[in-house]
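Posting this for the archive.
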Amino acid sequence: MFVSQRSSNDEYLQKLTTHLLAHKTCGVTGFVFGDIFLEDLKRWREENLAGIGLRGLFPIWKIDTRDLIHEFIALGFNSIVCCVNDAYLDETALGRNIDAEFIQSLPADVDPCGENGEFHSFAFAGPIFKQPLRITVGEKIYRQVEETHPGSAASSPICPTLGARRTKGFWFCDLLPV
């Protein structure tokens, strides 16, 4: 599913719905998500799926993230950081593998799974993959909150003020197939 570079939430939802409905016509009845404890995000997913007759499955819901990340690494999964919230991390985190060294390097108030929006990652290898996806890190760009979510202020629910930290923007990197 591709969205335009300056996509709106409406465009995203329209394309997502089209994508999900295509799978539904093939017999798919639900989708699995890796959400752990963000109630509003889980509710949003469930409501959007229910609106088109699908359901969400959340197999790791409410599992302790420190235990979860250590198990993820121990099982042989590989994941790469593809987006960071500038209130917690900078562009040097982009493209890093999520491994024990990365987890050790995180500030104490950063969830090791990025569950408070500190970072996002992309899993590219592990025991459930037939073969690892071969990817390389492409361009790294910075977008202020207003550019990422037009009409939103940095203190909006999308980019909350968490503790003494305030989100001003996000770093993103392209992940390209090799």
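The CA atoms of residues 10 and 109 lie 33 Å apart. Residues 152-161 have pLDDT under 50 and may be disordered.
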